[in-house]
Design a protein that fits this description.
By secondary structure, this protein is α+β, with helices and mostly antiparallel strands. The chain folds into 3 domains: 65 residues, DNA Methylphosphotriester Repair Domain; 42 residues; 59 residues, Orthogonal Bundle (Arc Repressor Mutant, subunit A), CATH 1.10.10.60. The chain has 9 helices and 4 strands; from the N terminus they run αβββαβααααααα. A 4-stranded mixed beta sheet has the order 3-1-2-4. Helix 3 packs across helix 5, helix 3 packs across helix 6 and helix 6 crosses helix 9. The protein is elongated.
Length: 190
């Protein structure tokens, strides 16, 4: 990490142009024409270089009469709206894992489009929402297979699968073995 005083204005400008997160906290930039100040990583429209002023702290920018950007929230120590949105989606999926769910309705409830939420979800978790809920279902099924004597069909329905064939297919995809074999391996270990 570079020291704030060693970063030249040219280097700061390059960081602003490239929305470089590595410079967040080292400096802030303000735009004279809008009266707003931002983090270097802000995705707002790029200002003209002649309208930009650099500051070492958010307070110094605010004290100079600039207001914080509503997009990047440079006035907050930790602001990650996309990560918070994904965490909220994960919580909601964990609550409805065993029920049929409408991802579009869930995204609408969160105030975003389903394609935007899906893209953010994959960016932050490495899996799609559908893959995520399948993992939850299979994990719950594994626990039920180890801890109960419930039938495989009952476990399939209890974990949100609409058919036994889908349950078998996804279970084997995720674990490499059938539910019956999984249960038998668990019994052998006991």
């Amino acid at each position: 990490m570079k020291e704030p005083m060693l970063v030249s204005d040219d280097e700061k400008w390059k960081a602003v142009i490239s929305n470089d997160q590595a410079y967040d906290g080292l400096f802030f930039y303000a735009v004279k024409t809008t009266g707003v100040f931002c983090r270097p990583s802000c995705k707002a429209k790029r200002p003209a270089r002649e309208n930009v002023v650099f500051f070492t702290t958010a307070n110094s920018a605010a004290n100079s009469g600039f207001r914080p950007c509503k997009l990047c929230r440079p006035d907050m120590v930790s602001y990650a709206p996309n990560a918070q949105l994904v965490e909220k989606a994960k919580e909601m999926l964990q609550q409805v894992y065993n029920k049929p769910f409408d991802f579009s309705a869930m995204a609408c409830q969160m105030g975003v489009s389903s394609s935007h939420l899906s893209r953010l979800f994959k960016q932050h978790t490495g899996v799609t929402p559908r893959q995520y809920i399948l993992r939850i279902r299979i994990d719950k099924a594994c626990a039920l297979l180890r801890q109960t004597n419930a039938g495989i069909l009952e476990i399939a329905y209890h974990t949100g699968f609409q058919s036994l064939s889908n349950f078998h297919r996804y279970f084997k995809e995720q674990t490499g073995i059938s539910p019956k074999k999984y249960r038998k391996l668990g019994e052998d270990e006991s």
